[in-house]
Design goal:
The chain is built from 1 helix and 35 strands. It has 465 residues and is mainly beta. The radius of gyration is 29 Å and the shape is elongated.
């Protein structure tokens, strides 16, 4: 098949001699593919489709495109504006050295889009477009910027940067296949807003401080998030994870907050050395929520959560766990390591007094250190914790304190050991079965829903003190 010939009959303005030109981009259509080759200088180009009704429209086979200089100094085949026709396949761009920008607007791309920034601070912007195949962007050295807004991708998206730092924003975009984001060096900032991914999602960052925000999005398959060394910050709000969610952070302090979200499978959170904070509230997890923090201390706050099973573990360092208004269908297991730790169950509840209900067993193991376990003590009256199964509370080594609200009653006598101080309320009381059926005053459901939203910020602030 012969290469499609490029038309040069369109009249363009001559280049003014006073312009300092950055670089020259070579562009051609070969066997239906639009191929772009940059040079070692800075290249900034805009690509957009020629639509029916525009003067350049040919109405022949394939799609027609115009490539323009974005900065007014980059040339395309020696001109500031260049027309190409007959694109039926991929868009492939190798931008070369220099700080490059590829800006794609209002286009239907019938094949794959592959952009290689090579070296330098490179950027890819895509807006209001459709890509029938895969989207791939890579950069080997320098800072990378990717902004994708209102784009439909028929297959997979793969974004990779080996350089020093990156900033990605994917907004109002649908990806039918998988999403893979990988960064090697430098910090990263990733914003996913109104994103819909039909297959698995992988976000993998190595060295550098990382920030990730996911809002108003939906993921149809597993989501795996890994951050490397140094600090990390993650915010998840109004997100639907239809399968498993796995989050893993490396050395350095980490912060994770998830609110008003749902997980259709299991949620796993694992962290290495450093102080780790997890705030999870107003959410549902169909499977198990499992949090595993290593050395360096941690703070875990969980409020208004429905889940099948809950496990919170930590290693050395000062750890604090807050469980309020949770509904767990099966077991709850909390285990802290060495250090002065505190576990607080129903101590910061909402003023309307939602109960925590555990359908299986409750086991708390505080291990070594002078630790504190508090049950009840919140602003509500009456029974605030119901456990259907067995209760095992172990203070571990050193001098440990157990405090329980006098209003908390249990079906089965708790197994308690290694607590040297029971506080002023004494041992946990046991109630007759008849007393367990008594309820507090009826709750106005509408008022309760509003109270949840209003009080969540107060609860969050108390946990983060």
């Amino acid at each position: 098949m012969q290469p499609v010939q490029m038309h040069e009959q369109v009249a363009f303005e001559p280049i003014e001699p006073r312009l300092l030109l950055d670089g020259n981009v070579m562009a051609e259509v070969v066997n239906g593919d639009l191929r772009i080759e940059g040079d070692y200088l800075n290249n900034e180009i805009v690509i957009y489709q020629v639509e029916q009704g525009q003067p350049e429209f040919t109405n022949e086979v394939g799609y027609d495109f115009i490539i323009e200089s974005k900065d007014g100094t980059t040339l395309i085949n020696g001109q500031l504006t260049y027309f190409l026709e007959g694109v039926t396949g991929d868009l492939r761009a190798r931008m070369g050295k220099g700080n490059d920008v590829v800006d794609i607007k209002r286009s239907h791309l019938p094949g794959d889009v592959k952009i290689d920034g090579y070296k330098g601070d490179d950027a890819l912007w895509i807006n209001d477009s459709t890509i029938d195949g895969n989207l791939r962007f890579s950069n080997r050295d320098g800072f990378a910027t990717v902004k994708i807004d209102e784009v439909d991708v028929g297959e997979d998206v793969y974004i990779r940067n080996k350089g020093e730092g990156s900033e990605y924003a994917l907004k109002s975009t649908t990806i039918e296949g998988y999403l893979k984001i990988r960064n090697c060096d430098g910090g990263s900032k990733i914003d996913l807003i109104k994103l819909h991914v039909g297959d698995k999602t992988y976000i993998n960052n190595k060295d550098g401080s990382d920030k990730l925000s996911i809002t108003f999005s939906k993921f149809a398959d597993d989501v795996n998030i890994n951050t490397g060394k140094d600090s990390s910050w993650m915010f998840i709000n109004l997100v639907d994870f239809e399968d498993d969610l796995k989050v893993r952070t490396g050395d350095g302090d980490s912060f994770l907050e998830m609110a008003l979200s749902g997980v259709g499978g299991h949620m796993r959170v694992g962290n290495d050395d450093g102080f780790d904070t997890q705030i999870i509230g107003l959410s549902n997890i169909d499977g198990e929520l499992k949090i595993d923090n290593k050395s360096g201390g941690s703070k875990v706050g969980i409020n208004v959560l429905d889940a099948y099973k809950l496990s919170v573990k930590s290693s050395s360092g000062e750890d604090a766990v807050f469980l309020d208004n949770v509904k767990i269908a099966d077991d709850v297991y909390v285990c802290t390591g060495s250090g002065e730790d505190s576990v607080n169950i129903e101590t910061l509840g909402l003023s309307f007094g939602l109960k925590s209900k555990i359908g299986g067993n409750l086991k708390v193991n505080l291990n070594s250190g002078e630790d504190l376990l508090k049950i009840g003590q919140d602003r509500t009256r009456g029974r605030t914790l119901e456990v259907a199964g067995r209760i095992k509370l172990d203070g571990g080594g050193n001098f440990d304190t157990l405090l329980n609200s006098v209003d908390n009653l249990f079906d089965i006598i708790p197994a308690i050991k290694n607590f040297e101080d029971f506080g002023k309320n004494g041992e946990l009381p046991l109630a007759p079965a008849a007393a367990l059926t008594e309820e507090t005053a009826p709750v106005n459901e509408e008022a309760l829903e509003k109270a949840e939203a209003d009080d969540y910020e107060n609860w969050r602030a108390a946990v983060l003190v």
